């Protein structure tokens, strides 16, 4: 069920909703040598774009991790007050799936009381967008670590209307313009099992209704029972996360495994299983250079509706592809990205990837490897938590391309 709202709202336009920045599971940061700060309710607000007087000083060294930027006098005993941070970003977008438009996103992080505690910051977020295709969506989310990170809680909700092309006859055939109303919510609760390990449960609800954008179009080539669907799922999730920073990792790794069970016994219209697994690795080459790698796989059992199959183009898996052009029973993909912090508040990126779709539908029987690549630039909007606003331009096969704007890293 998670795909019902998360793929078609958050994943259809991940660059706009900014949910990736605050709804992802938060890793355990590496303890800092900095002494405990003085608790403070002060709020630091960062609004995009930066003002001219906020330009970086090119003569200064560029630490790749915020921990490295702690002044020497602070490590010698001076206490540093923690601050809440708010990032508000108006986001222009041009997405290969839903067209061009404007979005806005906000991420609010609460300062930790003791900076050396291995506890990610509590994060709240909201975002929305509207495009020239008539698509719109909005989402809210919250992530909290409780009892010194013994428990992790995530809550999220979204709704909207997405107008896009359905490639039910194959990725190289003309798409059929459809409109899809979606709404959904999820809750996730995880328990720490030891150093870096977490496991827990996820419950999700989604409702979607599909129709043609124009009356002169032909009928939609999917079973009629998939045009008005309610999905209810219970999921099992496991994670090992050793990244050194929630929003801008430079070392460590992250392994995620999620199995979602949709069942009529829960109130769902369909019974099927969907599994997602991913592994990311981060290597700091030198002070300003970081290499990031990610491998991911998806499997959907028989009985899944067309909009909850595995696909490329969503959730930053093979950027550059229209969501829904390549989808089927299972997918695999690998990606690599280099991140160079060339100035105090600026980062540039380059990325490459390749993926494969295993056919389960007769119309997509041309199984082949799909390449992806692109370039990006990021502005560090919230230096204390290293929250960035990024712009990526990516391209794929057969002239497919797209511009993505979002808060946070792609992975």
Write a short abstract of this structure:
The chain has 411 residues and is mainly beta. It contains four helices and 19 strands.
Characterization of the model:
This protein is mainly beta and 411 residues long. The protein has one domain (2-407): membrane protein fhac: a member of the omp85/tpsb transporter family (Porin), CATH 2.40.160. It has helices at residues 2-11, 14-17, 19-23, 72-75, and strands at residues 43-47, 84-95, 99-109, 123-131, 136-146, 151-166, 176-194, 197-212, 228-241, 252-262, 272-284, 289-300, 310-311, 327-328, 330-343, 346-358, 369-382, 387-395, 401-407. The protein has a 17-stranded mixed β-sheet. A hairpin with a 4-residue loop joins strand 5 (136-146) and strand 6. It is globular, with a radius of gyration of 21 Å.
């Amino acid at each position: 069920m998670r795909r019902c709202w998360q793929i078609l709202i958050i994943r259809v336009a991940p660059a706009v909703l900014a949910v990736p920045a605050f709804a992802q599971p938060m890793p355990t940061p590496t303890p800092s040598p900095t002494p405990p700060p003085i608790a403070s309710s002060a709020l630091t607000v960062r609004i995009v774009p930066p003002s001219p007087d906020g330009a970086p000083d090119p003569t200064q060294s560029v630490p790749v991790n915020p921990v490295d930027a702690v002044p020497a006098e602070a490590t010698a005993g001076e206490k540093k007050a923690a601050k809440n941070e708010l990032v508000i970003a108006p986001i222009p977008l041009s997405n290969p799936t839903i067209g061009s438009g404007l979005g806005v996103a906000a991420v609010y992080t609460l300062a930790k009381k003791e900076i050396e505690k291995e506890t990610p910051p509590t994060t709240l977020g909201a975002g929305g967008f509207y495009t020239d295709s008539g698509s719109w969506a909005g989402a809210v989310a919250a992530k909290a670590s409780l009892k010194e990170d013994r428990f992790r809680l995530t809550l999220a909700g979204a709704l909207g209307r997405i107008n896009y092309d359905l490639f039910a006859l194959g990725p190289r055939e003309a798409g059929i313009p459809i409109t899809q109303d979606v709404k959904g919510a999820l809750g996730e609760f995880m328990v720490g099992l030891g150093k870096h390990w977490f496991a827990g449960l996820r419950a999700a609800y989604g409702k979607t209704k599909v129709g043609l954008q124009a009356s002169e179009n032909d009928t939609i080539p999917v079973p009629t029972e998939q045009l008005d669907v309610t999905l209810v799922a219970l999921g099992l999730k496991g994670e090992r996360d050793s990244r050194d920073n929630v929003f801008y990792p430079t070392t460590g790794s992250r392994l995620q495994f999620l199995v979602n069970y949709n069942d009529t016994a829960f109130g769902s219209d369909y019974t099927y299983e969907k599994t997602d697994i991913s592994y990311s690795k981060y290597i700091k080459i030198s002070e300003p250079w970081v290499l990031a790698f990610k491998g991911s796989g998806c499997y959907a059992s028989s009985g899944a509706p067309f909009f909850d199959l595995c696909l490329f183009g969503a959730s930053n898996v093979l950027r550059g592809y229209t969501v829904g052009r390549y989808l089927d029973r299972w997918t695999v993909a690998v990606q690599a990205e280099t991140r160079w912090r060339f100035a105090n508040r600026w980062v540039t990126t380059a990325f490459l990837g390749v993926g494969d779709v295993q056919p389960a539908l007769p119309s997509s029987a041309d199984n082949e490897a799909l390449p992806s690549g692109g370039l990006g630039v990021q502005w560090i909007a919230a230096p204390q938590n290293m929250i960035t606003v990024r712009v990526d331009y990516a391209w794929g096969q057969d002239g497919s391309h797209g511009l993505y704007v979002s808060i946070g890293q792609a992975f």
